[in-house]
């Protein structure tokens, strides 16, 4: 079984002799960030370069209700990865039907077991997690199966007032 820790150790060993030639290293190996963040609405930050299993993701939606906000997510990759999903929490206060104001996230691929069969599987990758978090602001925005019921009901009652509250949260918490 390949784990993140063993892959990182293996990559460090491979990179060692090539460290003296940065040009060949950069052409040979595309950074994880560049692979994951093709669209440009996400950025990865490793607060501690010695803890590659812990990183922060910033999602900056370029369309929809959340356009213009910067939303921070904390991601911790457990030792048992890829048999279990990473643990993710939203650090930015947000008015969203699938994210609570305390940062809990309703995204099926972050669940070990899911009724709909779209939960975590060992074939899933961190790229899937980044894609899923980014999509929560566009095509996976789900008012029909909310975690934050109050936000979903608010949207059903008054879409314009919902939009105003989202914009207020962005101004106050997501800049």
Walk me through what this model shows:
With 175 residues, this protein is of the alpha+beta class. 35% of the residues lie in helices and 11% in strands. Strands 1-2-3-4 form a 4-stranded antiparallel β-sheet, covered by helices on one side. Helix 5 (149-157) packs across helix 6 (159-173). The longest helix is centred in the first third of the chain and has 15 residues, at 4-18. The chain is globular and about 45 Å long.
In the CATH hierarchy, the architecture is: Roll
Shape: globular
Strand content: 5-15%
What's the count of strands? 4
Largest beta sheet: what is the strand line-up? Answer: 1-2-3-4
Give the CATH level 1 class.
Alpha Beta
User: How many discrete domains?
Assistant: 1
Through-space gap between termini: 41 Å
Structural class: alpha+beta
- Mean pLDDT equals 84
Rg over CA atoms:
18 Å
Summarize the biggest pleated sheet: 4 strands, antiparallel
Identify the CATH homologous superfamily.
Ubiquitin Conjugating Enzyme
SSE topology string: HHHEEEEHHH
Approximately how much helix is present in the residues? Answer: 25-40%
Number of helices: 6
Spans of at least 5 consecutive residues whose pLDDT stays below 50 are: 1-8, 17-28
Looking at CATH, which topology would you report? Answer: Ubiquitin Conjugating Enzyme
Pfam families: UQ_con
Family: Belongs to the ubiquitin-conjugating enzyme family.
Pathway: Protein modification; protein neddylation
Domain UBC core: 25-175
């Amino acid at each position: 079984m390949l784990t993140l820790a063993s892959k990182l150790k293996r990559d460090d060993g491979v990179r060692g002799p090539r460290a003296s030639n940065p040009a060949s290293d950069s052409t040979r190996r595309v950074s994880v960030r560049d692979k994951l963040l093709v669209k440009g609405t996400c950025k990865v930050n490793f607060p501690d370069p010695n803890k590659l299993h812990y990183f922060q993701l910033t999602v900056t939606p370029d369309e929809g209700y959340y356009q213009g906000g910067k939303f921070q997510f904390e991601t911790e990759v457990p030792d048992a990865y890829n048999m279990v999903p990473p643990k993710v929490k939203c650090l930015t206060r947000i008015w969203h039907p699938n994210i609570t104001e305390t940062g809990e996230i309703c995204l099926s691929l972050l669940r070990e077991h899911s009724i709909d069969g779209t939960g975590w599987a060992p074939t899933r990758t961190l790229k899937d997690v980044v894609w899923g978090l980014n999509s929560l602001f566009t095509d996976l925005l789900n008012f029909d199966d909310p975690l934050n019921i109050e936000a979903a009901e608010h949207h059903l009652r008054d879409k314009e007032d919902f939009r105003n509250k989202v914009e207020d949260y962005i101004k106050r918490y997501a800049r």
